[in-house]
Amino acid sequence: MMDLTARLEPVLAGLGYELVMLERAGRGQLRLFIDKSGGITIDDCVAVSNHLTHLFTVENIDYDRLEVSSPGLDRPLVKAQDYVRFAGEQVTLKLRVPLNNRRRLNGQLVGLENDAIKLIVDGAEISIDLRNVDAARLRPMV
Fold it and tell me: Does domain 80-138 correspond to CATH entry 2.30.30.100?
């Protein structure tokens, strides 16, 4: 999976997109979440799908179905640079090991410093080791 991610990132960057996440689902399904400045449209998904279908055929990459979509308003934060890029946004973090008896934290993302996520929770700034984050997502404001 990492090999495929490493192969796709430069291809998508060349097309003007960022690979947010790649998942292998059951029955040979590949699911890609892409993003770009200004957001993703249906036309973007179709263009990437068409391009990758041809690429996978040429490079003999095994899959049965390809799904390309936007990461959504609750975009996952996957890479370290995501914590810098989305500083100032509201996020939800799920932790591997609880911090102050809490595995789920909601707060304002301050940024990333020395592999520690800075987050304002209940008015106080806290630091969370990046390795302790099981999942992180933007929290869309309603």
Answer: yes
